[in-house]
Write a structure and sequence with these properties.
Number of helices: 14
Radius of gyration: 18 Å
Order of helices and strands: HHHHHHHHHHHHHH
Number of domains: 1
Strand content: under 5%
Distance between the termini: 30 Å
């Protein structure tokens, strides 16, 4: 672990590998999507707050804290949509579609921040549309549930893009929170938001199965806590093009784990669509450099 933390690229790779299991843990849990999201954020927040205090990161009121809390609400919303998407279309496809958040971010930068669009971004969008068509078209007529799953997963990507925007804003104010404290604050706010959401949606937070409790503990502490610490700690020290490439491990491996663990049948169109989508996500993530 120490050697991994000393190498930003190794830490980034380890973080992406760990987070690739997020959708699998969600699928393995028998709890409702909003309940899965709450426990991921709650256990993750406890771990991150402890880590922040242990490393000397201070929590202080101010605009940075407000932005982090708003980011947490958006992340909680993302969790609900993404976990619901997993229920309908499976961990692999839901995670791949949620990673289309890079295009929502690109749209924000072009429309709000008035940044020019590169040719690489236009190429990425064309590939994304082609990949999306290959991934979605075979199952589109299978039923309303599949269509809902695609919609929920893409919507999750949109809210994750908004989360990214507000987390970035939290670091751009005067006297900002340190990164661990900022992410811990976002997770805590997300947990509070999802706690309220469980009651509004008529769900029960009592986890009756010890198996589910174990899954949720690992899900929150390892995926949300350790995985995020590794990625956020390394991302500033690695070239953007390499970051985009390494982070593609998350949706790629999520798809692979689904095939292996849940015996998901794979067609040629699935492979072609996934490859096109991942190339598009990569190009979209580095085109903003």
């Amino acid at each position: 672990m120490t050697n991994t933390l000393r190498s930003p690229l190794a830490a980034l790779t380890a973080g992406a590998f760990i987070i690739s299991f997020s959708s699998i843990f969600s699928r393995l849990s028998s709890e409702a999507p909003v309940v899965n999201g709450f426990y991921r954020m709650f256990f993750g927040a406890v771990f991150l707050i402890f880590l922040a205090l242990l490393t000397g990161s201070r929590f202080k009121a101010g605009r940075s804290m407000v932005y982090s809390a708003l980011a947490g609400v958006l992340l909680g919303t993302d969790m609900v949509f993404w976990h619901t998407g997993i229920e309908y279309v499976g961990p692999g496809l839901a995670t791949l579609l949620a990673n289309f958040q890079v295009f929502f971010l690109a749209f924000y930068e072009i429309s709000v921040e008035k940044k020019p669009a590169s040719k690489r971004l236009f190429a990425a969008m064309l590939l994304a549309v082609a990949g999306l068509y290959l991934l979605v078209s075979p199952g589109w007529n299978a039923g309303e549930d599949f269509q809902k799953g695609v919609f929920f997963s893409l919507t999750a990507g949109m809210f994750y893009a908004f989360f990214t925007i507000f987390i970035k804003k939290s670091s751009q104010v005067v006297n900002p929170l340190e990164k661990t404290a900022s992410i811990a604050s976002a997770c805590a706010a997300s947990a509070v938001f999802l706690f309220a959401g469980t009651f509004l949606m008529g769900e029960n937070l009592i986890v009756e199965s010890t198996g589910d409790l174990g899954i949720l503990l690992v899900y929150g502490i390892v995926c949300q806590g350790v995985g995020w610490v590794l990625i956020t700690g390394a991302i500033r020290s690695v070239r953007l093009s390499i970051v985009g490439l390494v982070l593609l491990l998350q949706p790629t491996l999520s798809w692979v784990w689904e095939v292996i663990i849940f015996s998901k049948p794979v067609a040629a169109t699935d492979i072609a669509g996934a490859l096109l989508a991942m190339i598009a996500i990569y190009l979209g993530s580095v085109s903003k450099n």
